[in-house]
Design a protein that fits this description.
Strand 2 and strand 3 form a beta hairpin. Helix 8 packs parallel to helix 12, helix 9 crosses helix 10 and helix 11 packs antiparallel against helix 12. The protein is globular, with a radius of gyration of 22 Å. The protein is α+β, with helices and mostly antiparallel strands. It has twelve helices and ten strands. The strands form three sheets. The protein has a five-stranded antiparallel β-sheet. The protein has two domains: 142 residues, no CATH class; 113 residues, Transferase(Phosphotransferase) domain 1 (Transferase(Phosphotransferase), domain 1, Orthogonal Bundle), CATH 1.10.510.10.
């Protein structure tokens, strides 16, 4: 296979288009709509602005067979060398969710995850969790995206056999208590400590030979900003509360968001930082009983014993 080469300047232009640093005006968008007659293919959509700003580069991307396979993900700082500078091409798994397209890229050199941020503070909090040793290792990325080490492990709710023994449940519970204690010591309220959802997924990943981690900090808050939370933070605080259901599907409209923010802003101001952090504690206690149907009734007690021993309020 012939590998297309890109100069540093070309790579910078591509990355600026992906990250949104190069914004198109309304007139530029209209020009593209009027001139691009044939659908370029989903893999070319992230680069469509280059049709106008750098037609030669757009043409070059259109003829690049690796773009059809990796699309935008091949041009991220941690992925570019794996795709365009390695004899072995990485395996890529792309999935769609609430946050948009998420790519898991696996290569003999490294395994990474690239995903859009859910909130303006997610990168900052994810980096803090990495520094505390409780979340995935954060890697260089582009604006509005997180790139992190892909952690090989099992979702807590899918553990079976010896990995779900009473002894192991106690160890995992103790580890989760340690994780929340470290996060809370830095004022980080995780806000989404799901041990098992309806689909059997969990935000606690348990690797084979290393301690469990907590991943996905999309709705986490820094309570040190209390009570001066942004509308985004108030919304994220409110929408994880059990029983709060104002959504039409997974995408609430602007009016629904404003309604929830206006309703909860005075409520969150009445809470102390400690009350907010305590919600993580209650999420764990409520969540372990919900998870019993998947991991077994006898596993809940040793998990809670370990958690209660290690979590420092």
């Amino acid at each position: 296979m012939t590998i297309t080469e890109y100069s540093e300047h070309e790579l910078g232009e591509i990355q600026d288009m992906i990250s949104g640093k190069r914004q198109l005006s309304d007139s530029e968008k209209e020009t593209i709509r009027n001139n691009v007659r044939a659908h370029p293919g989903r893999h070319m959509l992230p680069f469509l602005g280059l049709y106008l700003t750098n037609p030669e580069l757009y043409k070059k991307l259109s003829g690049d067979s690796l773009v059809s396979e990796y699309s935008l993900f091949g041009f991220f700082p941690e992925a570019f060398g794996l795709v365009y500078g390695s004899e072995v091409l990485p395996e890529t798994f792309v999935d769609g969710g609430n946050r948009g397209l998420v790519a898991i890229i696996k290569h003999p050199m490294k395994n990474i995850v690239i995903k859009p941020v859910q909130s303006s503070r997610e990168q900052e909090i994810a980096r803090a969790s990495d520094e505390l040793g409780v979340g995935p290792r954060q890697l260089p990325s582009l604006d509005h995206y997180i790139t992190e080490e892909f952690v090989e492990g099992e979702h807590f709710s899918r553990l079976r056999g010896e990995r779900a023994s009473e002894e192991e449940m106690y160890k995992i519970g103790k580890r989760v208590g340690e994780i929340l204690t470290k996060l809370h010591s830095k004022g980080i309220y995780y806000n989404d400590t799901i041990l098992s959802d309806d689909m059997g997924r969990s935000h606690v990943i348990v690797p084979e030979n290393t301690p469990a981690i907590l991943f996905d900090y999309g709705v986490a808050l820094n309570v040190n900003k209390h009570p001066d939370f942004s509308d985004e933070e108030v919304f994220d605080f409110a929408r994880t509360i059990p029983g709060v259901n104002i959504f039409s599907g997974d995408s609430p409209n602007k009016e629904q968001i404003e309604m929830l923010v206006n309703d909860f802003r005075p409520k969150i101001k009445e809470l102390t930082k400690e009350h907010i952090l305590d919600r993580d504690f209650h999420f764990i206690h409520e969540g372990i009983w919900f998870a019993r149907s998947r991991i077994g009734d006898s596993m809940a007690q040793p998990f809670l014993r370990g958690f209660n021993e290690s979590y420092k309020r």
